[in-house]
Amino acid sequence: MAKIRVLDEHIANQIAAGEVVERPASVVKELVENAIDAGSSRIEVTVEEGGLESIRVTDDGSGIEPEDVSTAFYRHATSKIENSRDLFNITSLGFRGEALPSIAAVAKVELVTASADNGLGRRIVIEGGRLVTEEDTAAPKGTDLTVRELFYNTPARLKYMKTIQTELGHISDYMYRIALSHPEIAITLRHNGNVLLQTVGNGDLLQVVAAIYGRQAAKALLPIHAENLDFTIDGYVSRPDWTRSNRNGISIIVNGRYIRSYGLNQAIQRAYHTLLPINRYPLAVLEVKMHPSLVDVNVHPAKLEVRFSKEQELFPFVESSIHQVLRQEVLIPQPVKQSIGDKDKGSFIQEQFHFSKSPAPQAGPMDGLMDGGEAPLPQDPGPAGHTANSVADGSLTPVSASGSLPVKSPLAAGPEGAGTGFSGPRAQAPAQQGYSGQSSPNAGSVRNPGEAAYAQQKLPYSARETVRENTVPGYRLNLSQSGRVSQSSNPALASRLLAGTEAPPEIPPFPELTLIGQHHGTYLIAQNADGLFLIDQHAAHERINYEFYYEKFGRPADASQELLLPITLEFTPSESEQLTQKLHWFEQVGVYLEHFGGQTFRVVSHPYWFPKGEEKALIEEMAEWVLSERSIDLAKLRETSSILCSCKASIKANQKLTEQEATTLLDRLAACRQPYTCPHGRPIVVSFSTYDLEKLFKRVM
């Protein structure tokens, strides 16, 4: 008995739908491409419930002839190609004739079309691949196709659909690419009555970019045009100071078709070599035109990937063309101004306000390093980024933008020229600071009496609380004049260990080090009996700040303060739609973000201990992370926010530190719970044993 049989057309269409119709975005893609091939100048896409309830695509194209309406729903029925030679000269987006029958096999489809301006059209209704109605009707020229209840007859497919926001994200992303590919077509995307995208169709690509990514992104783009015998490149690429955290901002169009190409993506990124920070990517919209015979579009079920006949020539051409554009620009970032509404105003950093008479003391990331008053505290920051205490020459010492570590602080008092590898004139030791930040009677004078009060108000930190919270369990900091960190037992911890209320420390104690100097303004050099140690000052400060901010993000609402000038942020329409549903996550870390209309959001308050001058960039990165994560939990959000803050608030490489600053950094690092790696996993300390050094100098063989 024969076992091989020919499947009927209905089952064959359902199987084919598994390749063509993967999700609602696949339906939108196929229908919009048909509309473009029909010569439409206006395309409207209306989606309900992420496309699972209904998808409607309306265009003003050439329409379908009445006698071809039913034929269009047969498999491999197409008007795009006639013979095999046409496969090597494809100029249309669709050509296989699989879309309509595949969609009609798994949904309820209604098509109304007219090919003339006489008002007469044709209507056909198909449900699950079976013809229900076909009749004449009144219709304007063009096509109106509605797909309802997608996958209603294939529950297994419907079961594995993602959330509405996920499916909408795929639809929006594709519509953005289509709008960028065809700026000459007026495209509108609506979801549940809300307009997510609307272009005017005047052929201006820059206006389309502004509608999708925002006006600031459009202003940061550079035009590009290059051509040779085989290829023509047009489009825009962003300046290196305008980057994104992922590659989604790169759109590649080949002969009017959006594609994904790993080779072209790499060529674009290579053009930005040494110009972009790590894990940052440019915004680029490139249209590559070539003869259809040089590209094969029939290699992917969804036609999203293609093969180039001359890719070895194309990739270097794209790379060199972008590189030439960047070389011609003065790539010096300009200061960015905050704007509210249509008026451009300067960017202001709001100072911290305390309305209580005696603010509660808290711990800062680099404020207060001593336990028991054994060594001087860091000076209190005064107005305009100066310390309240004067140094030997009577001038005020500036502090860093974050307020966490002074750029130059006075050295400990000592003979001129004495020290351990640090150069520069010595200043007097800072006066002993009290618990609330007030200077002792031995403190230096300030320029006016109000500065001391302002400094006290500006720094409501408790030095002792910080060290007590951050000290490695079982050990306490003792600072000596030599800059060493020693260990002593903690009786309170011992009692808690005996009572079973405290777990023993898992991280070994930080080694006892003596500071020697600094190398290239980046690495601290220290030693002990075991050998030589190099400490990455940026990574060390990152770890210190990370543990500080991680503690702070545990209770961010207590530190959140309202802004006099809210910070405005712009996102794409689909990002705005998703962000509206996730605003409550920002409140969990003390950031109050509200929708300001359209694609704009504004930050009305955030914790005052955010790194100064980095608030907008920090919140933008937090928003990008929230949008990119499928599932968010509070612990992961707290961790990510702490890492972002710690990186922006830390001292950088090539920053000279005084002896006191370097010693302070080591002392605070020793107090960390995990002082051996930065939040990104990079090592903080590298050691060279005495034996290794002796081998290098051939003292041992």
From TrEMBL:
Residues 387-403, 430-445 have a biased composition (Polar residues). Gene3D superfamilies: 3.30.230.10, Histidine kinase-like ATPase, C-terminal domain, MutL, C-terminal domain, dimerisation subdomain, MutL, C-terminal domain, regulatory subdomain. GO terms for biological process: mismatch repair. Residues 515-657 form the MutL C-terminal dimerisation domain. One of its GO terms (cellular component) is mismatch repair complex. Residues 209-327 form the DNA mismatch repair protein S5 domain. Pfam families: DNA_mis_repair, HATPase_c_3, MutL_C. GO terms for molecular function: ATP binding; ATP hydrolysis activity; ATP-dependent DNA damage sensor activity; mismatched DNA binding. Keywords: DNA damage, DNA repair. InterPro entries: DNA_mismatch_repair_CS, DNA_mismatch_repair_MutL, DNA_mismatch_S5_2-like, HATPase_C_sf, MutL/Mlh/PMS, MutL/Mlh/Pms-like, MutL_C, MutL_C_dimsub. Signal peptide: none annotated. SMART domains: DNA_mis_repair, MutL_C. Residues 356-462 are annotated as: Disordered. Belongs to the DNA mismatch repair MutL/HexB family. HAMAP family: DNA_mis_repair. This protein is involved in the repair of mismatches in DNA. It is required for dam-dependent methyl-directed DNA mismatch repair. May act as a 'molecular matchmaker', a protein that promotes the formation of a stable complex between two or more DNA-binding proteins in an ATP-dependent manner without itself being part of a final effector complex. This is DNA mismatch repair protein MutL. It comes from Paenibacillus rhizosphaerae.
